[in-house]
Protein: Bms1-type G domain-containing protein
Organism: Molorchus minor
Amino acid sequence: MEENEDLANKKKHRERHSARWKGTLAVDRTLPTTLAVEKLKRRKAKKDSLNAESDGISAKQKNPKAFAFNSAIRAERRFRRKQDIETKKQHIPLVDRTPIEPPPVLVAVVGPPKVGKTTLIQNLIRLFTKTPLANIKGPVTIVMGKKRRVTFIECNNDINSMIDLAKVADLVLLLCDASFGFEMEIFEFLNICQVHGMPRIMGVLTHLDMIKNSKTLKTTKKTLKHRFWTEIYPGAKLFYLSGILHGEYLRNEIKNLGRFISVMKFRPLQWRSTHSYLLGDRLEDLTNQELIRRDPKCDRNVSLYGYVREYP
Ligand SMILES: Nc1nc2c(ncn2[C@@H]2O[C@H](COP(=O)(O)OP(=O)(O)OP(=O)(O)O)[C@@H](O)[C@H]2O)c(=O)[nH]1
């Protein structure tokens, strides 16, 4: 009887109603989730930094082993790089002495005969001025941007012109007939450039449409590119003008080349800073015509227009 009374007094077992326990949303609370781990890590890092700050020592000082380098080679490289940067800072920086209103950038178009120099200059002039220029006599200066004027000069195929232009050109467009390959003139010009401070040089491959086989075209482009890189420097810019249509190069390719020239930055050259020069791009004879008529060999008064590029 007593036993029965005890059982009646005891609470009855009740089923759990929570969904977690019914199995549908059961989550093992003992396993930490990635979020929880992240949170813990962050809390620990904060605590560590606070501790370090309070002690007045950094985490690196506190636990140097954790910050020791893993690879001796990598550490050596890092050290060498740091030293290089420090030594570089010790050099006297190159002073850019270009005036506020700089003279036009001089672009020399160099290459063997019949390679397409005149056509290229004409196309570039047409692109920026929207006016075709049929006859090109001497240097042509055009405006390429808000702050950039460019003078194009075609280089004659003689050594004197090459030497003169190598001394004054800011940028050289080195044209090469891809169906023929690099010619002697190109190597000659590069040698001349080398002793005159080496201006910026960009290669332009023309007559690519003469190579009909696509496989040959691909290999030619590749070989010429690598040959060009060995002569200038690996990675030197080389443009491809893949064909001519109605006497003009493809508009897109010319646009690309023009854009490249218009935004190009020029480093001041050491050689130029010690060799001032005057570039006359226009010449006018002011002598009295009557005097010339009387004596064709009389002394002449000549007026030269151009820019003095003087570096004090
Ligand atoms: N098929 C083809 N013909 C071209 C290409 N580039 C130029 N030409 C032609 O080659 C000929 C010579 O071009 P020019 O621009 O006069 O060459 P140049 O280098 O100024 O010649 P010189 O002033 O005599 O040294 C022209 O008839 C052009 O149409 C090209 O990529 N493909």
In short: Residues 34-55 form the longest helix (22 residues). The mean pLDDT is 85.
